[in-house]
Amino acid sequence: MDTAKKSNATRAFLIALAVMVVISIVNWAVITGTGSTKIVQMDLVSQNGYENTALLYVPKTATEENPAPALIMFHGISGNARNHESWAVEFSRRGFVVLSVDWYGNGGSDFNGQAITDTEWPALQEYIDYIGTLGCVDHDNVVYGGHSMGTDPAYFLAARNNPKAVLLCNLISPGVATKDEVYHGNILTLTGTADKSSAEKNYWGRVGSLLAKTGFPGYDDKNRVPTDTILGSFEQGNAFLVIRQQDMIHEAAFISSECIGNLLNFAQDAIGHDNIPNYIEGSNQIWLWKDVIGLLGMYSFVFFIITLAIYIGTNVKGFEGVIQPMPRNIGLRGKGLALSIVAALVFPLITIRFGGPIYNLITNIYKSTKLFGGNMQNYAFTTVLGINLLGLIMLAVFLLTDGKKHKANLRDLGLTSEAKQTKLDWKLIGKAFLIALIAVAAGWSYLRLQGDVLGTDFYCLFFGFRPIPWNKFINYIPYMVFWILAFIIAALGMNVERRLPSTGNDKKDFVIAVVFNSLLSMIMITALVLIENHIQIHVVGSNATALANWGVAICRLWGMPVGMTLAGIGQTYLFRKSGSVWLGAFTMGIVCCLAASLYGQFRIM
Questions:
Q1: Do 162 and 80 sit in the same domain of this protein?
Q2: Can you tell me whether residue 345 is helix, strand or coil?
Q3: Beta partners for 493?
Q4: What is the pLDDT of residues 466-499, one digit of tens each?
Q5: Distance (Å, whole) CA 582 – CA 575
Q6: What pLDDT does 547 receive?
Q7: Rg (CA), the chain
Q8: Same domain as 352, residue 217
């Protein structure tokens, strides 16, 4: 192996490692106020034997001598405890002890087979009981907060435990409005006018029912409660506030400064400013910096993994042969290349518009075999499968046109070594797979170390990289197999069929390829997410719902613009450095599969 290549691989890996460590520290400093808050990753085994996980944020000011108010948060159906970190950052800044739980099979918690409509949450009650044992908590000033599906347990557990206030954010389910259990304390119901789960036609009936149960009769669909006006009072402990935030979508609870400000102000007013260790008006927020640094952390994490993979293939004895010369550049040209670019833009649109049958197929496979039970992550899975199945069309076009013209063989496709040419090199494939496993294992070991030492992950908005809950890992394996197969097709499409003509400068070709492939990978998904979650609301109007009726919920594809950018960068980098598709397909297939599987609900029994 060329000494210069070994040196370059080593230098790139060390830079990636250093950058990732620095970003980890900066990320921790922003989230914790440079150590002013300690984050504890909790595990609790419930009485029925199921393992449940949570994040506990404890400010230094919360002591047994000076107990602090507390917030217990319950996330929505496709979230996890880390989703609420924007809330946790702001409440802990103000001196609150914050507990954010994983539940219903989300995050690291087991799924116990419980239906969403059930109103018994023994694990969540045990966490509430745990908070009750902490000497650093002022037990007279505890607030419950729930988002989406989490509004049910927030309300019903409030009815059973009588906290100081309950924050129902972006959903009041029929269960909360119709069940017999009633909470008579301070209630905030905050929803967005662009939230399809709280549309005008069904929202006010729920509010009226809830008001009647809590002692404010006379409000219904026709006689609506005034918004932004408190009924009752904090002094009497029965303040009821309805906020309809203009143009806010369902998922914006985590990324809307206005929403978070309303939550902060209501909770602090309910408790009383004199009882807040560090009262700060709700509009004063820093959580966005956490998301900016978290996004940089996600990129640094993938950079670490891909540079480690090349370092191993270049410098570690036993992995000789994985790094090959680049194959011939005989990709589509002229009209064929233009058609391929158009296809890269159109295929995601087709998949999302008509991907319902693939999603239903995955759901039926789960029902009959218990495979593919990741629930919400299946939206991303459907999209990836659909795009790459369509991608086979353009691969066939290449093989029948420019590939046929240049007599392309397996080596030209990057599927074998230079020595084999027309036969698969199973040693190369095996070594590439082993390198991918080592690099991914090293990356997730770092995440585990980061969590244990700093208490943080790399997270941005709704999406990020988290440690693997080993109680679920076996259920991720079928996903990994199909993600890798899809990424083999993707790698052939990006780096063989759609490979650009050379400029004559290898470094320039490398940069152009990385930028070109990453942009084509994410541009359509990004456009669709923006249309669904911004343009149709702020430009077309809140009632526009065309994309929402396409069968695959676009709002569930939050992280895909970032994930597909990372996939494009990673696969292109690894192909250009290794001369084959295998290292990129194995490495990025596993990385992106884990990213999609770990962020949300994985309800495997």
A1: yes
A2: helix
A3: none
A4: 888 887 888 889 999 999 999 999 999 999 999 9
A5: 8
A6: 54
A7: 26
A8: no
